[in-house]
Amino acid sequence: MASKQDRFTVELYACRSCGHATAAARRVCSQCGATTIERASVTTTGKVIASANVEFPPANLKERGPYTNVLVELENGCRLWGILAGAPREVAEGEPVTALEGDELSGGLRVHVLIPRLKG
Prior knowledge:
By secondary structure, this protein is mostly beta strands. The chain contains 1 helix and 8 strands, in the order αββββββββ. The strands form 2 sheets. It has a 5-stranded mixed β-barrel. A 3-stranded antiparallel sheet has the order 2-1-3, with no helix packed on it. Strand 5 (67-74) and strand 6 (79-84) form a beta hairpin.
């Protein structure tokens, strides 16, 4: 049976001209103006840039209960918002994480779930 990490990938939109990647679907690259945008599966490891605990989630995420929202910079430089797996906690800037993409706990919405990585 595949592990949870094997079942999910993070798909971004990458420019073939300059390599800029974004989680938002675009027809034109915001960096170079090229129209050579394609879907790309990317490295799913990165580091936390910022975080905030959410005590009262919106209705569409209510079943999650309180959670930690994090801004992560992936190794390719792309930044994305996600929800840290597990109970809410303080997260150090630079903490390594692995991004998964799923909708198991989000009422059918696409949510980036971020799993802390062990150092070493």
